[in-house]
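Entry for the shared binder. Reason: the reviewer on the internal report wants the predicted structure included alongside the sequence.
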Amino acid sequence: MAQVLLVEDDAAIRGALVRGLSERGHAVDSAPTAMAGLEQAVGNQPDIVVLDLGLPDLDGTVMLRMLRGASAVPVIVATARDDEAEIVAVLDAGADDYLVKPFGSAQLDARIRAVLRRTGEPGTDPTVTVGGLVVDPRSRIARLDGRELELSPREFDLLHYLAARAGEVVGKRELLTQVWQLPYGGADKTVDVHLSWLRRKLGETAQEPRYLHSVRGVGVRLGAPG
């Protein structure tokens, strides 16, 4: 299974999750503060971090931004906060998933396995290559014809999701639920705007596509030019 780092200040919750995840085969380290979590995340290089937001020294969102400056480790935010605007902000800051308390270790285990499937199981090479486009979710770096692209966290997630399904037509409903972790309904403009930004950085337009091809009424397909 995975090497998991749990950053949680509540001792009872921390102990229960460590026991539950250990019983499911994971190797689990834990930290009660943001700074201790940062030190372990950078020093021990876990496969995934489970992060609470209400930490005693730093808000978990601040820790997430600091961590993203040093590591591409997948992060599941696990917190009691359920405000949709905050969920979107945390995902945009680089979280890979968001889980609202209360939850059990079985659900957390399922989320861990799902995130690792998307980002690449430990010990595998998850790099995706489509034509001159190379997307590496471990380093969260995408290159086009050898040139590194300057992408926001959400743009990278969108590009990686589409590249991993190269040749398939992916609908906006799927992108909203899988990339944004949001229920479908009225937010498809969010997808359109991010696709427009992504096209610009890939050096193309909707009228003259190279990699991103819109399929009217269905979705978008990423494929190699020609």
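Summary line for the report: The helical segments are 11-23, 34-44, 60-68, 84-92, 105-119, 153-163, 172-178, 188-201.
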